[in-house]
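Retro notes (design track)

What went well: tokenization of the new backbones is finally stable.
What didn't: we kept losing track of which sequence belonged to which structure.
Fix going forward: every design gets posted as structure first, then sequence, in one message. First example under the new rule, 1022 residues:
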């Protein structure tokens, strides 16, 4: 489960507002229709009423590219359905209009904690003996109310908590932990999760289409009742989640920004996860009350997109959800903020790198100003041709800068932030950011930029329509936003009507001295706190038991779906552009977008300068174009390019609107064949690279997962430290890097294309009409072979790629504990074991082992360390297959925990790795998960080509999932145990620890091997 109070969803993932369906429908009008009567679905052995055959009225919008139907059940529940048959799967969201802004001011974090509890089951799901369990749960609820009233009496609180802990152990004997997760795993669901933000709590599942009825049954069961089962162990997990937030400087910074912008509204007065005070004094009674108030049909929407039948699906939904009682939800009255008249400045200290963040408060997302904000944001940052993109990032005036939006119902926040170059003051970065805003206010941006933003926005949506996640997300966005679907679609048409004059006026009206300014400086946080947690007694995992409801639900019949595996010989057309230059082709039959790749088997292992050359390219022009003009031309064409160098491969990528493939390819080829050296750009890039290296040493994720892991796997000289030393970096010449870039098309490589045009050598015909996102049928573009043979410039004979250079893997024969000192609340631990060389024969066993042991929320590791012992918010273990033939597999186990729990957490993980618990029920769930998942997965579109690339690296010429599907269903626990005993148990392991020196227990660490501190210089190589 995650919460998204900070950073906003628009910052950390695709902003689905940009993926909303909208295209050119003028005069959108709602249509009311009726679905056809359908054959009733056979009733399962569960309590559910089957309505008599009836017609279900729905609304739809003419020209809606998603074909959404919106139904309203008699009890007020809203249902959005979209049929998209890319694979026999359905993305589902259960969205509740209840977020952290609805939390009582005296119990912040309640909506988020409730989200966690909804996964615990009901009086039917997750219990062995409900009457007995309920009696104990009632006692626990009453004791928590006593506990809350003892804030000023520590001794009494300790006694009361001891009672809570003791009775919780009794109640847990009757519970079936993770039973919901087991159901989802068994039916082949993916991405089982939820999130809470200011406006919403949303539960998500990606399910096989043949398991829709089981999904509907269990979701309706969850919606009608919430049982606070295993409350105090889950509270420990929320404490850990809070501590993870306290270890994130960005979280603290964003929280400070909102507090300054919203001194009255809950957006700023309370956070999604809540205060420490409130977390340490929870009320089950308040949580139940909140559930009863907000989790009612009229406040909930079901949003489904995928391989579904509209009529049968709405009947199933009504069958299970229709009986839920109707009840009005509380009305939220948004506090009105007073205008800001002067900048509010705040300062945040922490160990991570410095930056400055500016925030402006604006109207909510459903307003015209909400659309204007989206436009202004894209004028500043769009990844290619925004003012910040070109004036600050490409000219390297700062290390990095960007603009993003946090769009909400009552208000929206526009955030502009930047990180400084070496020696640059944050105040200077702030001035530069405000300077870009000033350009918008003065209208100092090109006239073509807004039309180009509108076109690229349409392309983004077209691409988004290929994802059920984006399609279903658009539906729940509309519901949370409280606007009709036709109006939600119309927002995009309205977005396309925004003019330059309108934006200039909007910027002048709304962007003055009315901002909040947070300086994030590197230093020790004087306000650093942690959630202190009472001792907890582990509760039983009860792995081999199940509820009667679980048995009934899983016994429900479902249609068996057969897997469809990729046939590389049939699904990929292989030809040659010329001798020695192969082309791998897959047709895009869905829209007018293309992806083109040149892939070379050479990389930074051969020469670390390849990485520098790839980065340098973005700062270079060619021919008549400067670097900035080149980016603008690509943006106008609806295309983009990139060059990225890994250790042993370089990907040269061009993608976008296929109607503009020829002009985009011409520009791209000109750039890589004749880049113009720029000494000033190189000097700035080198300085920026050195600053980025210093900043990396401040990031705990980079320290643990990149620097330490590579140091242990390969020694001091490894792929991570394989960079040019500072002296050599400063001495490099522009011509050396442009010479490398020019070599790209001269090496042996392969070309991959996924797009709409046929792989023929037909010459171009007269082009009629205006190219659009969907290439018009009357436009005769040249065939792909003609285009690439004429446009992709290579020598007659290609140079063989240099011999592969891989770093030697260390034997890891000694038990060692490496640790790095880092100022943080938690401690994070990795257990690393080297395995065998990659062998495809092991892959099926590894797949079943991972699914059973450490794969997800229903796995042994998660159940034991989080659910039973409450030792961590996050815990996992995975045996990872190598991604390249001839390289080793590794077993990697992770646990993030409170520093004072480190001894118990390490002992818990070690015990599981040594003696894997036997749970036949979990094994069957793991088998079912693999079977249902693979039988409904479809590798399609451009993923076919990338799947083939991965297979080639492993020496495979077929879809290896075929072996996994066939073999795992016949495996016994003895076979799994044999794998664990020979490949995991007792293997020499290296343990990596990052944490604060004064909080780590070194006596405990010494039990696992020789303890050695690593310095940042040792693991970074500089």
């Amino acid at each position: 489960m995650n919460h998204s109070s900070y950073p906003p969803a628009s910052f950390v993932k695709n902003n689905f507002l940009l993926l909303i369906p909208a295209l050119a429908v003028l005069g959108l009008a709602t249509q009311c229709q009726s679905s056809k009567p359908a054959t009733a679905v056979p009733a399962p052995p569960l309590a559910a009423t089957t309505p008599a055959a009836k017609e279900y009225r729905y609304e739809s919008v003419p020209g809606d590219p998603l074909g959404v139907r919106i139904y309203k059940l008699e009890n007020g529940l809203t249902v959005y359905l979209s049929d998209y048959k890319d694979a026999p799967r359905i993305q589902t969201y259960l969205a509740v209009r209840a977020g952290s802004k609805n939390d009582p001011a005296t119990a912040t974090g309640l909506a988020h904690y409730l989200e966690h509890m909804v996964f615990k089951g009901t009086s039917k799901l997750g219990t062995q003996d409900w009457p007995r369990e309920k009696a104990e749960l009632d006692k626990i609820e009453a004791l928590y109310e006593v506990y809350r009233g003892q804030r000023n009496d520590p001794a009494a609180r300790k006694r009361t908590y001891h009672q809570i802990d003791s009775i919780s152990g009794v109640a847990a004997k009757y519970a079936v932990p993770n039973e919901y997760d087991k159901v989802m795993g068994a039916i082949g669901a993916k991405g089982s999760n939820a999130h809470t933000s200011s406006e919403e709590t949303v539960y998500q599942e990606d399910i096989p289409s043949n398991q829709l009825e089981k999904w509907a049954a269990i979701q309706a069961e969850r919606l009608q009742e919430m049982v606070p089962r295993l409350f105090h162990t889950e509270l420990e997990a929320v404490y850990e989640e809070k501590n993870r937030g306290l270890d994130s400087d960005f979280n603290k910074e964003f929280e400070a920004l909102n507090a300054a912008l919203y001194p009255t509204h809950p957006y700023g007065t309370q956070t999604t996860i809540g205060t420490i005070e409130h977390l340490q004094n929870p009320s089950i009674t308040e949580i139940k009350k909140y559930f009863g108030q907000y989790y009612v049909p009229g406040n909930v929407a079901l949003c489904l997109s995928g391989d579904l039948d509209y009529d049968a699906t709405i009947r199933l939904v009504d069958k299970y959800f229709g009986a839920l009682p109707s009840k009005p939800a509380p009305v939220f009255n948004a506090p009105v903020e007073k205008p800001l008249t002067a900048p509010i400045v705040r300062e945040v200290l922490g160990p991570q790198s410095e930056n400055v963040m500016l925030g402006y408060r604006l109207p909510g997302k459903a307003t015209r100003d909400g659309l204007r904000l989206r436009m202004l944001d894209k004028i500043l940052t769009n990844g290619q041709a925004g003012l910040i993109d070109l004036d600050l990032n490409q000219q390297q005036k700062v290390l990095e800068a960007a603009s993003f939006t946090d769009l909400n119902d009552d208000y929206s926040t526009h955030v502009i932030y930047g990180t400084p170059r070496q020696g640059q003051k944050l105040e200077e970065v702030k001035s530069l950011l405000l300077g870009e805003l000033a350009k918008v206010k003065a209208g100092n941006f090109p006239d073509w930029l807004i039309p180009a933003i509108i076109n690229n926005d349409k392309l983004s949506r077209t691409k988004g329509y290929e994802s059920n996640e984006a399609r279903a997300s658009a539906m729940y966005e509309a519901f949370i936003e409280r606007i009709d679907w036709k109006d939600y679609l119309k927002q995009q048409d309205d977005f396309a009507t925004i003019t330059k004059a309108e934006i200039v006026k909007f910027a002048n009206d709304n962007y003055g001295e009315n901002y909040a300014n947070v300086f994030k400086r590197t230093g020790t946080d004087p306000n650093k706190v942690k959630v202190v947690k009472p001792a907890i007694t582990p509760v039983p995992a009860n792995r081999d038991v199940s509820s009667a409801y679980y048995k009934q639900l899983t016994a429900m019949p479902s249609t068996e779906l057969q897997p469809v595996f990729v046939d590389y010989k049939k699904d990929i057309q292989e030809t040659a552009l010329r001798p020695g230059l192969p082309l791998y082709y897959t047709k895009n039959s869905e829209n007018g977008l293309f992806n083109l790749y040149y892939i070379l088997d050479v990389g930074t292992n051969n020469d670390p300068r390849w990485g520098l050359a790839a980065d340098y390219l973005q700062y270079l022009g060619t021919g008549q174009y400067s670097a900035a003009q080149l980016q603008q031309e690509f943006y106008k064409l609806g295309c983009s390019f990139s060059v990225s160098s890994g250790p042993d491969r370089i990907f040269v990528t061009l993608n976008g609107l296929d109607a503009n493939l020829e002009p985009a390819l011409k520009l791209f080829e000109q750039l890589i064949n004749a880049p113009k050296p720029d000494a000033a750009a190189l000097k700035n890039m080198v300085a920026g690279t050195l600053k980025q290296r210093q900043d990396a040493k401040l990031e705990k994720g980079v320290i643990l997962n990149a620097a330490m892991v590579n140091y242990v796997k390969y020694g001091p000289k490894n792929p991570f430290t394989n960079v040019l030393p500072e002296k050599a970096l400063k001495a490099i010449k522009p011509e050396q890097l442009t010479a490398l870039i020019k070599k790209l098309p001269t090496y042996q490589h392969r070309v991959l294309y996924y797009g709409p045009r046929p792989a023929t050598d037909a010459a171009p015909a007269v082009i009629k009409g205006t190219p659009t996102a969907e290439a018009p049928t009357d436009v005769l573009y040249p065939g792909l072979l003609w285009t690439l043979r004429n446009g992709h410039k290579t020598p007659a004979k290609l140079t063989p790629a240099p011999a592969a250079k891989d770093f030697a893997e260390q034997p890891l024969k000694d038990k060692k504990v490496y640790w790095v000192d880092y100022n943080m609340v938690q401690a994070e631990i990795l257990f690393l074991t080297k395995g065998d060389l990659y062998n495809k024969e092991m892959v099926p066993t590894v797949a079943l082992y991972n699914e059973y042991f450490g794969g997800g929320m229903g796995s042994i590791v998660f159940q034991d360390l989080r659910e039973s012992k409450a030792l961590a918010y996050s815990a996992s273990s995975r045996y990872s297959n190598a991604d390249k033939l001839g390289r080793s597999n590794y077993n990697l186990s992770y646990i993030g925990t409170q520093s004072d729990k480190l001894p118990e957490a390490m002992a818990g993980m070690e015990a599981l790795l040594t003696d894997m618990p036997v749970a036949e029920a979990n094994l069957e769930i793991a088998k079912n998960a693999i079977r249902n998942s693979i039988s409904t997965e479809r590798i399609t579109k451009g993923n076919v080509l990338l799947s083939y690339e991965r297979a080639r690296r492993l020496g495979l010429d077929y879809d290896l999932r075929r072996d996994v599907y066939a073999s795992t269903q016949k495996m016994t626990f003895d076979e799994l145990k044999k794998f664990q005993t020979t490949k995991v148990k007792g293997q020499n392991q290296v343990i990596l620890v990052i944490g604060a020196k004064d909080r780590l227990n070194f006596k405990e660490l010494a039990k696992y091997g020789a303890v050695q501190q690593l310095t940042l210089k040792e693991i970074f190589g500089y």
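Added context from the reviewer: Residues 350 and 984 are 38 Å apart (CA to CA).
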